[in-house]
Amino acid sequence: MTQFSEYQGNTGTPAEETGYYIDCRDLFKIYKRADLEVVALRGLDLSVEAGELIAVIGASGSGKSTLLNILAGLDRPSAGQVLVGARDLLDVSDSDLVMYRRSEVGFVWQATARNLVPYLSVADNIALPMALSGEPAKVRRAWSDELLESLGMADKKDRLPYQLSGGEQQRAAIAVGLANKPPLLLADEPTGELDTENADSIFEMIRGLNQSYGVTVVTVTHYAGVSQFVDRVVHIRDGRIGSETFSRPDYRRDGGIVEEEFVVVDPAGRLQLPPELAERFRRGGLAKIQTEDGQITIDAPGTNPRQTRSRSQQ
Ligand code: ADP
Ligand code: MG
Q1: In this predicted model, what pLDDT tens digit does every residue of 122-145 receive, in sequence order?
Q2: Pocket perturbation via mutation, ligand 1, pick of 29, 35, 38, 62 by most ligand atoms within 8 A of CB
Q3: β-strand pairing of 79-84 with 184-188
Q4: Which protein residues are within 6 Å of ligand 1, measured from CB?
Q5: CATH no., domain 4-251
Q6: Would you kindly state where each structural domain of the chain is located, as residue ranges?
Q7: How much is the pTM?
């Protein structure tokens, strides 16, 4: 496989100011249709380190695709900050955005048919983005072969998309996404049309590529089994990050991975309660907050105190 350094030749450097590869602060996206306004993202904060693999989960309509489309440079944010590497996606020019989409992000859609050109073979699908970037044929072939090899698809390179299973089409789509060796791979429900077995194998491959090439990955998913393949699961609720679950392989007990869920406290000190606790405040009301040794205990009327901890206190 290509060495990490060679792949990373295409920049993947975190922003100097923040140290994060992706840094969203107080991000808003408002869609305007006639006189109707939909606030799809409302003050979202999210930081991702270079080389991290995270999954974004949340109910339908919570803003997951909006976030991914903004990170992909397909849509522009309305307000706030979104830095990816050295770029500020709020301020970027149209031509710079085109360059960004071509060389710095790979994107995999849920609909398998949307990811591949139907009349091109798998190998030609992978070669296409490289040809657009001016890579010579020899380079295109070598990298395409290597990607297909690492995705277990070497024997399928001459097939047309319709001659592949859904799982194979998504693997080919991942290879297309990585054709220009982008530092960032985004996937919006890449296994949404697949069964559990195929979903497992796709996420296993994404994990493998993340580890061998160092590519940063943000994937939106509904797949319940995703946490074993990622570093972190972030839960999006009503256009904001509500909580994060960290997988801690170092705390393995009985072969399982211990997961801990944290409520996220934003830089202004606001936190979003988990839905079951928020329900207790549906008609408003007072919460009792106690702090002791870095632990915050929130007492809602009629509940047992639920313990939360702010991330800064880990
Ligand atoms: P998710 O991917 O979590 O299901 P989306 O990001 O697609 O959610 O949508 C978030 C909200 O923004 C929804 O209320 C949706 O209807 C709205 N929305 C998304 N895209 C558009 C658009 N192009 N125009 C108007 N409203 C939109
Ligand atoms: Mg969506």
Answers
A1: 999 999 999 999 999 999 999 999
A2: 38
A3: unpaired
A4: 31, 33, 38, 40, 58, 60-66
A5: 3.40.50.300
A6: 4-251, 283-314
A7: 0.86
